[in-house]
Amino acid sequence: MAKKYSEATAAARRGLMLVLSSPSGAGKTTLSRRLLDQDDGVTLSISVTTRKMRPGEKDGRDYHFIDQQRFDSLINKNELLEYAEVFDNSYGTPAQAVMDALAQGRDVLFDIDWQGTQQLREKARTDLVSVFVLPPSIPELERRLRARAQDDYGTIDRRMAKASDEMSHWAEYDYVVINRDIDQAFADVKAILAAERLKRERQPGLSDFVRGLQAKL
């Protein structure tokens, strides 16, 4: 059952940026979709990308699909929080929608790589909570990539070759989840989010609340 957040709850704190990163096939997209389905306090950051739309994807829901000229214009206008090139395609996060959501007390979910996470850390460290998702083994990672049938053999080979470099950045993240079982991995991500929401610095109304309690003693 989805956890409902009232307007009063949302207004009581600033939202956070929750980043999920992993090598392709390790499970971050599945975890992201589950979190969005089950927690209406979380909204997805919709990236812009120059890659072609895949079967089942929808413009404005999965990504904003744009050409390279438009992408370069966003960079030049400083309208992206982060951007990177992955497998010959450009990806980036429009800044305004994210900043508006955080100010309204909503948490924003990012499905981005280590390059984008580094850029977010430089620009908004206090808002950032980063989680790296690891596969249980390399053979299992390859099996998952082939089972999802989204890429040709050449692309899968490139993703596998890149996995080692991506996993080398695990220590740069706040948390690491090993996705041996998707249900347990999801429970771990939910626990991380719950704890981060309760951090003292993310509850600006606590001082007034405590003073109100003390005044009644």
Question: How would you describe this protein?
Answer:
Strands 2-7-1-8-9 form a 5-stranded parallel β-sheet, with helices on both faces. It has a domain at 7-46 and 108-212: 3-Layer(aba) Sandwich (Rossmann fold), CATH 3.40.50.300. The chain starts with 6 loop residues before the first helix and ends with a helix. It is an alpha/beta fold. It has 9 helices and 9 strands. A hairpin with a 2-residue loop joins β5 and β6 (89-94). α2 crosses α8 (182-197).
Provide tags for this entry:
217 residues, alpha/beta, Rossmann fold, four-stranded mixed sheet, 9 helices, disordered N terminus
Mean pLDDT: 88
What would you report as the Rg, rounded to the nearest angstrom? Answer: 19 Å
Order of helices and strands: HEHEEEHEEHEHEHHEHH
Q: Which homologous superfamily in CATH is the superfamily of the domain at 7-46 and 108-212? A: P-loop containing nucleotide triphosphate hydrolases
Got a strand count?
A: 9
Largest sheet: 5 strands, parallel
Q: Strand order across the biggest sheet? A: 2-7-1-8-9
Question: Which class do the helix and strand fractions yield?
Answer: alpha/beta
If classified by CATH, what would the architecture of the domain at 7-46 and 108-212 be?
Answer: 3-Layer(aba) Sandwich
**How far from one another are the termini?**
38 Å
Tell me what portion of residues adopts beta-strand conformation: 15-25%
CATH class of the domain at 7-46 and 108-212: Alpha Beta
The CATH topology of the domain at 7-46 and 108-212 = Rossmann fold
Unreliable residue stretches: 1-11
Count of alpha/pi helices: 9
Apparent shape? globular
Helical content, roughly?
40-55%
